[in-house]
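#structure-requests
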Amino acid sequence: MQVQLVKHVAHPKDTVLDGAFYAWANPHGGTTTDGYYPFCFSSPDHRLHDNLKLPAEASVQLAAFPDRFYAYDDEKQMRSSGHWTKDMASESCIPSGTFHPKTGILDPPNPDIMFCGKVREASKLTNPATGLQFYWALVRTLGGELDVVADPSTVSGTIKTGGIVGTRSWMSGRLK
């Protein structure tokens, strides 16, 4: 996904290598205050980018790790669900880690996000180290594509290519 990296973000529980970025998805004209939406993502190799001069436009491989993952055959099924997704566009995003509904902007922002998107590819895979299964999906949402990696216990419905998904997730990313 193309983003405008705006600032480095530190969280209290970060390890020596951890950190996060505050960014804008699909930035408009290289500005630091405009794009589709602002969001935060954790960066496991963040310290490799300590000397990166910000703001900077970058391509980021984003991965979402859901605590809930809703899968629908189509938009009609999503609209008839009893979940929060019924009121969302099929490609939409709420950067929930950047604000609190009652108190406003969160500082520092958290790498949390709610989104709906269209599944471009999907697989059920097995982790070779643990032998445990997980779902992987490439999802197109507002602003671009991202990977979703989900524990089967978090999934409601069947994830399939061409379907629609909705999730609340923790976001992680690596600069390409």
